[in-house]
Design the sequence.
């Protein structure tokens, strides 16, 4: 697994050593940038999608914990690299993945990177699992992906879904909507057994929210919130089969 990383270290020599070690012994780590202080590190963190940050504890104008406080919620892992062992408890409390002592042991560095790979692999496996919309006919729920995890929606609260290129807009009965990075076909398959029907190439509707059908070549449906959606001629029989 490739890891996008940055090095945050105020000593140039230490940065050079770590960079060279990573290049030689951990080729799966791509260093996207280096920072010598908290401000420089913040810029890199905010401008890159990172998997891993190698983080010295003591820096000019702040320390590693000041940086993490400023970052707030984060999705990357941290490996602390320091000459001082008395920060170990603080690092643990900051949810560090690993704590490396200077001078850096190559074996420990490899072990630290492998540990982060293990964490990220498990996260991706979990994400793949929860990103697949799953319905439960008993509980009537579906999971949708978010940047920091996933959200559980009651399928009964979904009025309709609208295609938006490779995204889907999910409209809820509380006048809110969710933009999800999955295609409409994806949700059509997931909601097939939960009372949802594809009425148009761009629309998937909750048949329980249909209050009126207007005749026509394909016709249209009116939902409980007053939204009228055109029905494709090819989808008309699929829709009407729910009302026989």
Sequence:
């Amino acid at each position: 697994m490739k890891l996008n990383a940055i090095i945050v270290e105020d000593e140039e020599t230490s940065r050079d050593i770590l960079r060279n070690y990573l290049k030689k012994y951990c080729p799966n780590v791509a260093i996207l940038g280096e920072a010598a202080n908290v401000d420089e590190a913040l810029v890199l963190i905010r401008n890159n999608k990172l998997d891993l940050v190698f983080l010295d504890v003591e820096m000019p104008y702040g320390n590693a914990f000041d940086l993490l406080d400023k970052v707030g919620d984060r999705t990357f892992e941290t490996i602390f690299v320091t000459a001082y062992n008395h920060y170990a408890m603080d690092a643990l409390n900051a949810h560090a993945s690993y704590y490396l002592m200077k001078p850096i042991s190559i074996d420990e560095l490899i072990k630290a990177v492998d540990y982060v790979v293990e964490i990220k692999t498990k996260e991706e496996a979990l994400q793949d699992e929860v990103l697949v919309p799953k319905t439960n006919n008993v509980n009537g729920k579906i999971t949708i992906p978010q940047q920091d995890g996933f959200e559980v929606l009651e399928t009964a609260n979904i009025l309709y879904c609208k295609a938006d290129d490779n995204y889907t807009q999910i409209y809820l009965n509380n006048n809110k909507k969710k933009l999800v990075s999955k295609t409409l076909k994806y949700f059509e398959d997931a909601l097939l057994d939960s009372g949802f029907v594809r009425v148009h190439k761009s629309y998937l509707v909750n048949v329980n929210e249909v209050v009126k059908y207007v005749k026509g070549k394909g016709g249209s449906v009116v939902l409980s919130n007053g939204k009228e959606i055109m029905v494709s001629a090819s989808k008309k029989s699929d829709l009407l089969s729910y009302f026989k």
Remarks:
- The chain is about 30% helix and 35% strand.
- Confidence is low (pLDDT under 50) at residues 126-138.
- The CA atoms of residues 42 and 71 lie 7 Å apart.
- The two ends are 52 Å apart (CA to CA).
